[in-house]
């Protein structure tokens, strides 16, 4: 049979094994548009079927880009920059120029300093060994920021192919769908969902008579919180509309819980304001530090939710790290969830996050 690729995820179509990627019943081969059974069930029923690929398989696929002469568009999630950053990307993509795209800008509070965010993204990428040509902020879901991106991509590619890369769940396919919609009017050309691992192979989209744009498989970064939560909890911690900040005045020896996923202990310092930027559906709870450990054991998955009981079975234990917050206005970033702004600083706090999920500090964006 002639090689056919699923138009939704890029997997090679096959009719023999229902448990493997790319499966369709033989009758589906007569359809004008062929999508695998996995994509069909994802699109129509939001059901996710496990696939046989390993993390290294995805990296090997991405490494093919190093042998091309092309433009690379790297997508990151603004709310999970560190978790959605592919370490070693420069090695995987060779000497090809890279444009960095921060997705989900529509979910940021309107008071966010976008220029400061762009400069922080450039510096953080550089600190992680990635040299980028330009940084843009977009909303792939709503089409914000795409005029500048389209101009930049067209100018930088100069007739070459374009590879869109990123970790799972950052919005790569949504980004490409938005580009296709703007140029052709076709909607939802590529399968998208909340869930990681939707794209399973390179999906080829014609740009002109001689060059293509490729949607690539999402690289799996195990430090992403997304890999430890159920589909239901993922929907709750993923913002769907503009985040509304919540402020808390804390004395030292008080604790804030962010659902049951993370907590911050105010260890030492003068009374301080903590401004929290998380999904509007994530529950935040304040308690005394001396009671925090027992409170977590008693209420996680109940008063402290999400996570659900299903997520708790696979969520790594919370690990504590104590840091001194500098005097200037600072954000404490919990990747995959959001951030806490400390306006005055000069205090000592302890951050509890799941093992292997790394929090970070940055100059405040608001």
Automatic annotation (TrEMBL):
One GO molecular-function entry: GTP binding
InterPro entries: G_CP_dom (IPR030378), GTP-bd (IPR006073), GTP-bd_ribosome_bgen_YqeH (IPR019988), Mito_lipid_metab_GTPase (IPR050896), NOA1/YqeH-like_C (IPR048422), P-loop_NTPase (IPR027417)
Domain CP-type G: 56-222
Domain of life: Bacteria
Protein name as it appears in the record: Ribosome biogenesis GTPase YqeH
Native source species: Gracilibacillus salitolerans
Source species taxonomy: Bacteria, Bacillati, Bacillota, Bacilli, Bacillales
């Amino acid at each position: 049979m002639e090689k056919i690729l699923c138009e939704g995820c890029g997997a090679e179509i096959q009719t023999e094994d229902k448990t493997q990627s790319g499966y369709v019943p033989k009758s589906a081969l007569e359809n004008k548009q062929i999508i695998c059974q996995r994509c069909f069930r994802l699109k129509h029923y939001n059901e996710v079927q496990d696939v046989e690929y390993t993390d290294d398989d995805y990296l090997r696929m991405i490494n093919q880009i190093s042998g091309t002469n092309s433009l690379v568009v790297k997508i990151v999630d603004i709310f999970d920059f560190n978790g959605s950053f592919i370490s070693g990307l420069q090695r995987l993509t060779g000497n090809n120029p890279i444009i960095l795209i921060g997705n989900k800008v529509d979910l940021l509070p309107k008071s966010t300093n976008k220029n400061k965010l762009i400069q922080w993204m450039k510096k953080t990428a550089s600190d992680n060994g990635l040299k980028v040509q330009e940084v843009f902020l977009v909303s792939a879901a709503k089409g914000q920021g795409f005029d500048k991106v389209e101009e930049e991509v067209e100018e930088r590619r100069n007739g070459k192919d374009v590879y869109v890369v990123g970790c799972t769940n950052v919005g790569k396919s949504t980004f490409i769908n938005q580009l296709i919609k703007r140029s052709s009017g076709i909607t939802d050309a590529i399968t998208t969902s909340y869930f990681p691992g939707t794209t399973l192979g390179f999906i080829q989209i014609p740009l002109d008579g001689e060059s293509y744009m490729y949607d690539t498989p999402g690289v799996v970064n195990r430090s992403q919180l997304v890999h430890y939560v159920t589909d239901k909890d993922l929907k709750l911690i993923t913002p769907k509309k503009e985040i509304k900040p919540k402020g808390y005045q804390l004395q030292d020896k008080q604790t804030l819980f962010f659902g049951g996923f993370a907590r911050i202990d105010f260890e030492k310092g003068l009374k301080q304001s903590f401004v929290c930027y998380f999904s509007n559906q994530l529950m935040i709870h304040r308690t005394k530090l001396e009671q925090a450990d027992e409170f977590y054991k008693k209420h996680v998955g109940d008063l402290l939710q999400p996570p659900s009981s299903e997520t708790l079975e696979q969520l790594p234990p919370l690990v504590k790290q104590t840091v001194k917050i500098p005097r200037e206005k600072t954000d404490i970033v919990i990747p995959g969830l959001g951030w806490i702004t400390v306006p005055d600083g000069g205090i000592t706090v302890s951050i509890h996050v799941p093992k292997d999920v790394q929090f970070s500090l940055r100059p405040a964006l608001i």
